[in-house]
Amino acid sequence: MIEAASGAVRYQTQLTNGTHSVISDTTQDKGGSGSGFRPHDLLEAALASCINITLRMYADQHGLALAGVTTRVQLDRSNPEETVFEYEVELQGTLSEQDRARLLSVAATCPVRRTLSKRMGFRAG
User: Fold this and answer.
1) Cβ atoms within 10 Å, residue 17
2) Do 29 and 75 reside in the same domain of the chain?
3) Domain membership flag for residue 92
């Protein structure tokens, strides 16, 4: 569970899972100080980090020579009826084309992507 608490600075929010914490805020043009991740940045970060971790774990489990991964995620909200997560994966290491194709296929299976792909609902507690 994530807890969000108001910060001392207008709109700044302290997020914690009880062990780790991060600051969220909004941009200056919306009245914030721009001192932390915007909420939509956090959505992008969740997917980017999940793809990254999933690929590294897969490479470790299958003995692939993956030296590193860089993932980039951007939300496209230009269509009011659909939100699209656009992502890029950059693989480092001496990998065969078959290994690269396999890893790019595995990127689509990360748990956060699977979660975001399901029908969603919201319930106030």
Assistant:
1) 10
2) no
3) yes
In terms of domains, do 61 and 29 share one?
no
Spell out the residues 6+ positions from residue 81 whose beta carbon is closer than 8 angstroms to its own.
Answer: none
* Complete DSSP assignment for 47-94: HHHHHHHHHHHHHHHHT----EEEEEEEEEEEETTEEEEEEEEEEESS
Q: Is the same domain home to 32 and 59?
A: no
pTM of the model: 0.93
Q: 12 near 36, Cβ under 8 Å?
A: yes
Task: Quote the CA–CA distance of 85 and 74 in Å, as a whole number.
Answer: 6
pLDDT in tens, 84-101: 999 999 999 999 999 999
Q: Is there a domain that residue 124 lies in?
A: no
